[in-house]
Amino acid sequence: MKIVVCVKQVPASSDAQIDPVTKRIVREGTRAVLNPFDTYALEEGVRLARQLGGQVIALSMGPPKAEACLREAISLGVDQAILLSDRAFGGSDTYATSYALARAIDTIGGVGLVICGKQAVDGDTAQVGPGIAAHLGWAQATYVMKVERADKDGLRLRRMNEEGWDVVEVGFPCVLTVLKDINQPRVPTLRGVLSAMEEQIPVWTPADIGADTGKLGLDGSPTRVVRTAPPPPRQTASKRLAGSPAQVAGELVADLRTRGIL
Amino acid sequence: MRIKPEEKNSWRHVWALAEVLGGQVQPVTHELLGIARELADTRGQQVWAVLLGAGTAGQAEELIAWGADRVLLVDEPQLRGFQDELEAGLLTRLIGKYQPDILLGAATARGRALMPRVAVLCETGLTADCTGLAIDPDSGDLLQTRPAFGGNILATIFSASHRPQLATVRPRVMRAREREEGRTGQVIREGLAAGDSPAMKRVLEVFQDRESVVNLGHAQIIVSGGRGVKSARGFDLLRALADKVGAAVGASRAAIDSGWISYAHQIGQTGQTVQSKVYIACGISGQIQHLVGMQSSDTIIAIDKDPDTPMMRLADIAIVGDLFEVIPEIIKEIDRV
Amino acid sequence: MQSMTNMRDHIISRRYQVELGPPRQDAPDLRAALDQFAQRYRRVLDSGYVAGITDNSMGLLAFQGTETIIELGLPVNPGQVMIHLNTFHTLENLHQILEDCLRLGIRQLLIISGDGSDRLPRLQPEEVGATQVAAVTAVELLAYIHRVYPGRFELGAAFNPYEPREHELDKLARKLQAGASFLITQPLLSKNAVVDEVLRRYPDLPVFVEAWMSRRISLLSEAVGYEIKDDPSFDPILTLKQLHRDYPDCGIYLSLLGFKTQYDLLGDTWVTRHTEG
User: Fold this and answer.
1) Contact C107, C154 (CB under 8 A)
2) Neighboring chain B residues of A121 at a CB cutoff of 8 Å
3) Which domain holds residue B152?
4) pLDDT tens-digit series, residues B266-277
């Protein structure tokens, strides 16, 4: 059984800058990094492949330079990496992106498990994982915080929710999205990084994955961004409370109730 | 699905998907009904609540009091536990049958799993974590505003050529309306059909354990402590306040380095970045490394003996006082009212 | 076992400690970064100085000093390499580093709590036999290495005079109790009363004050906990000389040293009462 881990290259959040005039994100000069959540997906993929047998393949869609995040995936232990890169993919929203990734997974063939990070830190949508599952018609388990058991028949998982977690069993094929709680990813060794630099990474186009180009890119995306704007400025009317503890506590709680917080 | 402009009018009404956890409708549902009501009223349309669950029929009427005109109820034993695939298939069929213009869901663990699956099955768009929703007066399309790039920018998104329009909203972002006793509406019962996709998972057990879930990124309220908390026992007081207001507990690096609380709670440049609705900083001076991890929170409250720390200057509400005296009073005050 | 170079000897023999960071994991050109590290490392050793090699400084992922030395086949002269070691490791990885140090002949370790990040694991209290604490800090790591490798390493601790005085002095006492036998301070720009107090309390302890060799003193803001504005008149070399005068019995640890512009000036900077008298 093959395991595919989907990864994305994102702008390094620490570099994010807003142009003071246009109020748009300045992308030039910002470093691109592997989406931090995907590191956990890669680690889990490598661990499960070691346990269940089989190959782990890292899959990404993006511009040619996104191959850097695939090299990182190799240094983290995956066996192979594939990049979907073509102008036709550009401008895809989560619907079109999950369609393209699903087509690639189908093309790879023999895949029993797809693992994604919880979400990408640039978009924060968490939609691509379930989207892939829906396109493929596979089962899905999201917000996975622990793999309790893995064998040839399937997985027993802990899914986090707002009040705790549930335990579910799911067979293959399926798609998981995983939380940071799931493991502690390894840090690549210098030796591993140097050898990943030598790997050849195949680049696939829409034709390679048999994709309907009408479902890709801007034209294939149901959603459009109409405008971006800076968030409203932080209100500076700050308030100072001093007095006896009981008095300030009373004022605070009253204030929070007025604001609809309590 | 993709539609032609003239087909827009055959998609009508605003649906709000009830958030059910542990068999109980969650308060975020009332917030979804609140914004759904606003959107529907601008166009003279109805609000429909969609309630999927096992043994939840008794909670349907209540949704009318919170603003629903219709409640689409599916109460089936197979819907016990959270079965994404089954619920997504069912919702897709109901959407095809009734053709709603808009479907709103909660941006919770469940909503963020279910809604993207529904979006793909319906071949339509979805916008996650909206902080603003409005109807464009010209086109009638739903304008969906959401923060991007860690809250540095707000993007407004729409979907002109696909219906229904799907969006999720985080808890405590939208305001619920006042509950209206005796408000009338209609409950429409639906069931699972032979053609619906079967459950693809087995839900074995459900655990409730708030303590184990240190999910600062999603926490709406965070009570956070720094050097001023003085000891591991000092954090017990912060936990007591957190329990009282449904908050997660965070900490500055100074508190972690002193060994008072585990690294999982660290907020700041070398810890987690949070954007809570309320951030209560207790005895945190506000070093740069900490501020970058929390300063985009909506309301910042600081409690410190020293009135002149960076955190006290940043705070929306700065309380000058000993946190060991003030916090017990806050807890008392919340209990009292 | 060969006798260790005592850290006191570095002070008597006026050997600078020069901080070196191994290449970062996200280095845009890794090969170039490795070359630069190798050149600087050799230069420091050839000068008779000590290379102090950082461990994921600021929580930013970098390669380990030991693996870099091994991969590049760099020489290790006894006493001339000091490795920083922080609490953000798995136990397995920690032992790997310590075993590599022993194999390479590296005996000096600076034990610090360090900066974490989501990507770095942290030693768990039960792994290092620390049952009384919620998190492992430098104190517990010192005690652990001291216990598991008795007498094999010379262990140092960091001292931050910008923390509240009693809190930091108390932490220092615990670090010494746990096995630290030398001290490196946070960067000083001038004589510091808390460091003076340390020297009064522990007259026999080898202390190295850190000299900030970058002109950009604003970068120090985070370390000292208040904002420092850049000052065009700030001269790192003059400040270094003044630190020697102020602390004639201390060694000096140089951070952010300019290898192009400053390194060749170092021969004349270690002014002592003797040379000035």
Assistant:
1) yes
2) 150
3) 5-190
4) 887 666 778 788
